[in-house]
Amino acid sequence: MVRKLIRGGYVVSMDARVGAGEFDVLIEEDRIAAVAHDLAADDAEVIDARGCIVLPGLVNAHMHTWQTALRGIASNWTLPQYFRSVHAGLATLFTPDDLYIGTLAGALNQLDCGTTTLGDWCHNNPTPEHTDRAVDGLVESGLRAVFLHGSPKPDPKPGQRHFSEIEHPRAEIERLLKSRFTSREALTTLGMAILGPHYSTYEVAVHDFLLAREHGLIASMHCAGLDAKTPDGWERLAAAGLLGPNTNVVHGNNLSNHQLRLMLDRGVTFSLAPETEMLQGHGHPITGRLRDAGHAPSLGVDLESAIAGDMFTVARVALASQRALDNAAARAENGQLPFTSTLTCEDALGWITVRGAEALGLADRIGSLTPGKQADVVVLRADTLGMRPLHDPVATVVMQGSAAHVDTVLVGGAYRKRHGRLLYPHLARRLDALEASGRRIAAGLNERLATH
Fold first, then answer.
1. pLDDT of residue 152
2. What is the C-alpha to C-alpha distance for residues 257 and 27, in angstroms, rounded to an integer?
3. What is the per-residue pLDDT across 390-402, written as a single tens digit (0 to 9) for each?
4. Alpha-carbon Rg for the chain in angstroms
5. DSSP state for residue 116 in the 8-state scheme
6. Dihedral angle sign, alpha carbons of residues 113, 117, 123, 125
């Protein structure tokens, strides 16, 4: 039996029963065996975590990983330009190998930044070959991922239906389950990235919800941005009994309080992307609205074509944006600030660990350092110039943490990063391929814009 013992660190387990403190973490094969003081395991490989914080692998619940080669291109765009230039422009220029290299590089960057689980929302896959190459990239990276199979959104050509009228392809979901996703226990599993009532007709939404339910898959969908295609869709889906814990809503800025309560009461989860939501014009993230309803979000990077890909930054932005709203509301109501912050750093760390696991349907496997769960673990150096002195480990993770502090990353007990170095063997070659892919696609868009 392969055993590892993480010794001497400060453990933030994100499990109230396990707690936090100077514990050892024993890993046997791919699972956490024990978290306790002074564990004995003479035959185990010892990982020296003195001066470190040990925490669950972070969870990025929502990212369009295929856009990695477009880093920085969309950083100044609001939603209208994004939809026009990406979905009707750049996306149409991607070959299957472009999806492979973008997805691989994006997944590796997640590991480098301490994220061990990714919700990969892949909606630029016009052919099965595009889909398969994206999956190849995830599998090769060694990251844990839910591949959320989506559908492209180009402008229709004469005689073609608008994408909002096209049902999710049953044959493709069934093909993937029979070929690429035969085991629900694999590192990479399948979900569905559907249009949902915000971007489809009601009939298409019903079809897609039923398809996801039939195969026991998470159904994730955007709800923000443009005006809703089916404004009363959520109420109709609820009345039909189609909303439940396998329903994941991304953004949700457009929802009324009534709709939000309707969905939360049925177990719907929410994945917010606070930085891109504020940058591109979705509106303020609904972090506080969820809190007021007794719930909490998961978080995602969303677009590396616009922002950085690390979950430490995402958590900080989510926390700061909601604190700013709460502080402004208190001033307006009482003429003074609240005595202490309305949301804590522990809340924020939960958004990128346990809440992410829930949103992706993996709460029984990941999200906390709980004995019996998968050994997805991050060791974060806290003995560096930017981290010392260590007063509050959770606050330090959220407010000072970065990829530069990530020393060790384990996924299912296997090393993905060690001593601050990503262990993927072909990184330089893959980065060259990413560069070539991105420059070719960007040049293609510029040529199209010049002729219109």
1. 86
2. 44
3. 999 999 999 999 9
4. 22
5. E
6. positive
The model scores a pTM over 0.90: yes
CA gap 172, 392 in Å, rounded: 48
Between helices 393-400 and 311-334, what is the axis angle to 10°? 100
Angle at 363 between CA 225 and CA 186, to 5 degrees: 95
Residues in the chain: 452
Chain centre distance of CA 331: 34
Q: How confident is the model at residue 29 (pLDDT cuts 50, 70, 90)?
A: very high
Instruction: Render pLDDT for 182-232 as a digit per residue (tens, 0 to 9).
Output: 999 999 999 999 999 999 999 999 999 999 999 999 999 999 988 899 999
Question: Which of these CATH numbers, 3.40.50.920, 3.40.50.1970, 3.30.420.10, 2.30.40.10, describes 3-56+368-419?
Answer: 2.30.40.10
- The pLDDT of 417-434, averaged and rounded, is 97
Per the listing, tokens 């829930």 go with: 358
The C-alpha atoms of residue 86 and residue 73 are separated, in whole angstroms, by 10
Angle between helices 96-112 and 427-450 (to 10 degrees): 130
Collect all residues with Cβ–Cβ distance below 8 Å to 102 and sequence separation of at least 6.
Answer: 65, 66, 67, 68, 69, 70, 94, 137, 434, 437
Tell me the pairing of strands 188-193 and 219-223.
parallel
Same fold for the pair 3-56+368-419 and 58-358: no
User: What are the C-alpha distances in Å from 107 to residues 153, 268, 309, 408?
Assistant: 23, 26, 10, 16
Q: Where are the domains of the chain?
A: 3-56+368-419, 58-358
| pLDDT over 70 percentage in the chain | 98
The alpha carbon of residue 300 and the mean position of all alpha carbons in its chain are separated, in whole angstroms, by: 4
Q: How buried is 225 (Cβ within 10 angstroms: 0-12 exposed, 13-18 middle, 19+ buried)?
A: buried
Q: Looking at domain 58-358, which of 3.40.190.10, 3.20.20.140, 3.20.20.370, 3.40.50.880 is its CATH number?
A: 3.20.20.140
Work out whether strand 421-422 and strand 414-418 pair parallel, antiparallel, or are unpaired: antiparallel
Instruction: Give the pLDDT confidence of 272-331 residue by residue, as tens digits.
Output: 999 999 999 999 999 999 999 999 999 999 999 999 999 999 999 999 999 999 999 999
CB 375 within 8 A of CB 32: yes
